[in-house]
Amino acid sequence: MRIVMLGRPGAGKGTQVLHLARCHGLEVISTSEVLRRAAATPTPRGTAIREAMSSGGLVPDALVVDLVADAIDEAGGSIVLDGFPRTVAQCDALDHAFSGEPVDLAVELDISPQEAQARIRRRRTCPTCGVPVAGGRCPRCGSEGVRRADDDLDVVLQRLWVYERETRPVLDWFRRRGVLVSLDGSAPAERVTEELGNVIRCIERMSTVGAASGRER
Ligand code: AMP
pTM of the prediction? Predict the structure, then answer.
């Protein structure tokens, strides 16, 4: 299964993909984690990525696409992409990276810009793993959660603006393909997890029925 998670910064994508990995066996490719690793290298590419991320802009498509395509190649069969694609050009590149196999599900976690700002003001992230920290300590490595540098208000406003301009058309791209499901991201995380689980079970059932009817023909 191939899933992409979309939604404004602070919508809860990072929290939900952890659950998808734990309960549905999906391998998570977190774009920002991939980018942070590449940004740490002392190369012109590392510098370009660092500058884009700290300003709240998007990293140029050509750089992101290469890195994510490599991560997809290394991953197993069932994948959830967190934070990719964020532009229409990245959508087209994704088709290529999946060798023409379609995305099964694009999930939009829908929250208002006001809710996004309020959540980001409160949120803490693991400085080592990059995952959301809810109870003070990272669920993976136990590090103390910190405020991300790009969670400062002026950078957040820029990220929200970039979302409207660059990433909203991505929702339409998946809607036209009939795979977009929009969930209320402002609901409690457990409720979103439950709804997401229902959607995934529904898709799994449909593909089982499709495979069985294919065999009968
Ligand atoms: P995130 O943690 O997913 O909000 O991403 C943090 C930052 O990483 C973004 O503000 C962008 O600078 C960069 N980034 C993440 N995903 C992408 C992407 N698909 N394309 C370009 N830049 C990205």
Answer: 0.90
